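Appendix B. Raw example, untouched.
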Amino acid sequence: MGAAKSFAAQTMPLKILKEQIRELEDQEILHVETAFRHSYGIEPFLSPDTVLRNLAANITKISGSTHDLAAFEDIKNLKAWLKTFRLAPPASVFDEMMPF
């Protein structure tokens, strides 16, 4: 009986240590996920469905952009578009400084 008791006494600390390792791993995963979300501006609690909808919308935008890029493969089309393109005039620095 003494051997069985000492075996149980030895396995208990191992179970506790394994549980502590699992908790530390969970904390590390949460830390990495949080840093990733923060660096890419992802909201903390998004559902997978929301992520998939956002991804589909982004893919649609990108495919539209590739169509625009294809139109500019011909240098003549690009030059014609550039001739029609006009930048907005820059705002005057004085306009921003005047309170009235």
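End of appendix B.
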